[in-house]
Model the fold of this input.
Amino acid sequence: MLERVRRYGELIRFSHTIFALPFALLASWWAWVVPSMVQGVSVAFRWRDLAGILLCMVTARSFAMAANRLLDEKFDADNPRTAGRHLPAGLLGRNEVLGFTLACAAAFIASTLLFLPNWLPLVCSLPVLLFLAGYSLGKRFTWLVHFWLGVALMLAPVCAWIALRGSVVIVQPADLLPSVVLGGCVCLWVAGFDVIYACQDFAFDRERGLHSIPARFGVRGALSIAKGLHLLMLGLAMAMSFWFPQLSLGWIYRLALGGVAILLVWEHTSVSERSLDRMQLAFFQLNAIISLVFLAAGGIDAMLR
Done:
């Protein structure tokens, strides 16, 4: 049983939840700690809301990864880099993964009930799941697929905000703006590092007619585009501290952005057109730190307002 659980955890790369979860928690923290951002409306903290955020994040991401493995099984089997994944290698059966995917979808929808009487999360749950599953099909028809993934993770802070302040958002849509801008930072950041990650498969993608920025523009062009996306992310993140004074994003947050910039430089110097050997450092370790830095800095500044 423990071995089975471990395999499912590896299937969905559970540890990678750390990419989006900190941004959902940061948006939630802002919604609770900064209650007067629009029209003086306050949001009371409830433990069941926090549980709902955590459960929705874990189940939605688990669904998305399991669906990705199902939809990409044939390509994974043909790609030497991914042939060892659980489905191609026979470590898990297709019916097992399908059952797991459906169970995660059902658990996600059920988790939205924790936010009642706010019914918006429940109404949005199915469209969100369809969008998340659709990412895996994107590479079949557009090289903009990296932005699809970016928007998928952008939903984390936006949906967390809606889950906590849905009634306010309906009356005053501008209340959603802080989470949307934070989500924009997430989108640019994720699209940038996904472009870097996709460089590993640019030859396979070209051979099989799959679409990606590396397949379209080559590794050198893709790495340049990734740098541009991360520069835009830093600029947007800095602009947040001026656009939303209610968040009180001051010197702690701005200093942390300097640290994020250093980590991104490290990420981009770790890979090159000639060498992609340090992809795990560039993709996972450094980006995990970046997400935690955002959570810590944005949370502390808002708390000390």
Q: What stands out?
A: DSSP finds 13 helices and no strands in the chain. Residues 21-30+45-303 form a domain with the Tetracycline Repressor; domain 2 fold (CATH 1.10.357.140).
